[in-house]
Amino acid sequence: MARALIVVFVGLAVLLGVVIARDRPSADQQAVVYRQALMTVIDGTFDPLLQMQAGRRPYDAALVREHASRLPLLSGMIAEAFARNTSATRAVNTAALAFVWSNHPAFLQSVQRLQGDARQLQSAAASGDQARVVSAIRVMALECDQCHRRFRGD
Ligand code: HEC
């Protein structure tokens, strides 16, 4: 009787362990969630500027300055967010191509260019020269597109 109970308890403990292990996101999944969240924040910061550049939103110099001041820091976080190579697992929902890690130096160069663009945009915003700001936004948007074309599927 006691032995049967022990077997039952051990069985339950194992089952619980399995349930917990399945519920906890894997390190790969966490890495994907983190980098997609960073990209979402970068997008949320950059998109209003893109809208102004396209004339779809009135130009607001104060908002440009505030958002532009965040972009060098945010773009500087991309390299770390993509440090973990998740290309070996199929169990994650990602648009990142394996090329991100198989050609990592090129990926990092793109990150650096984006950071440089973000700094240019920040100093343009500080100068108050709207034409300079608009062209800096365009330059930065090109780098977003270029990296996505090379390193992101879909
Ligand atoms: C160095 C390369 C690189 C640059 C530069 C870059 N991205 Fe990305 N971005 C990626 C990759 C790779 C993914 C796919 C991530 C994934 O699904 O795991 C991505 C995903 C995204 C996503 C989708 C996020 C999600 O929830 O799935 C958005 C939005 C985005 N990027 C916006 C931007 C914007 C805006 C810029 C420019 C200001 C930018 N990105 C610059 C590489 C880059």
Main beta sheet: strand number and arrangement? none
Q: Could you tell me the number of beta strands?
A: 0
The CATH homologous superfamily corresponds to Cytochrome c/b562
- Poorly predicted sequence stretches spanning 5 or more consecutive residues: none
Query: Which molecules are bound in this entry?
Result: heme C
Helix/strand order, N-terminal first: HHHHHHH
The class by helix and strand makeup works out as mainly alpha
Q: Which percent range fits the helix content?
A: over 70%
Number of domains: 1
CATH topology: Four Helix Bundle (Hemerythrin (Met), subunit A)
CATH architecture tag: Up-down Bundle
How much strand?
under 5%
Shape summary? elongated
Write down the overall mean pLDDT: 92
CATH class: Mainly Alpha
Rg? 22 Å
With helices defined by DSSP (H or I, 4 residues minimum), what is the helix count? 7
Distance between the termini: 59 Å
What can you tell me about this protein's structure?
The protein has 154 residues and is mainly alpha-helical. It has a single domain, classed as Cytochrome c/b562 (Four Helix Bundle (Hemerythrin (Met), subunit A)), CATH 1.20.120. 77% of the residues lie in helices and 0% in strands. The chain is built from 7 helices and no strands. It has helices at residues 2-23, 27-53, 61-75, 78-81, 99-102, 104-127, 130-151. Helix 2 (27-53) runs antiparallel to helix 7 and helix 3 (61-75) packs antiparallel against helix 6. The mean pLDDT is 92. The site of heme C has 24 residues, from helix 2, helix 6 and helix 7. Heme C binds next to helix 2, helix 6 and helix 7.
